[in-house]
Amino acid sequence: MRDKLRRRYQVQREVTRKGYFEGAIALSELTRLQELLHLDDPRHVDRQIAVRFEFLRNEYDVPMIVGQLQTSLELQCQRCLKALEMPIKLDFRLMIDASEELVRESSVDTLYSDDGFIDVFEVVEDELILAIPLVALHEDTACNEYWQASVAEPEVAAKENPFSVLRQLKTTD
Ligand SMILES: [Zn+2]
Predict the structure, then answer these.
(1) In angstroms, what is the span from residue 83 Cα to ligand 1's centroid?
(2) How does pLDDT run across 111-148, given as a tens digit for each residue?
(3) Distance, CA 7 to ligand 1 centroid (Å)?
(4) pTM score, two decimals?
(5) How many A from CA of 35 to the centre of ligand 1?
(6) Is 63 left (phi over 0), alpha (psi -120 to 50) or beta?
């Protein structure tokens, strides 16, 4: 059974009852994330982030929050400085209050509770901040004519480089 999403959860209680939640968080609630976005567009305020997650225990008996979020954020293209729409859909898996030893051994990140409580809005905000590219660019390299003209030369040089094939493989990954 899925319950309505809220902001704070008591970890042990939710793990015991295998809490499963689904809902939406308004972008306007996530102020740290907002600072990284292209905010000229007033539609932004109405954006929602669809979230669902469950609480469980991993094989070491450590509580975990496992979920998925989906939204679309408006970034600023660093080539033309106009808005760039970036759809985001990602899975997240975090241990909660894992021991230092486990944190070292595991590839899964840990989240530290506040006296046994976690704030899911903060979890979602951190995940989105990590998902945003440092430099956002439109796929169409012609979005800024002036910029294209200025980099035409290094692009030609790159074609003669034997490693350019490797680089292409990487960028299409
Ligand atoms: Zn652009």
Answers:
(1) 7
(2) 999 999 999 999 999 999 999 988 999 998 888 888 75
(3) 36
(4) 0.79
(5) 19
(6) beta
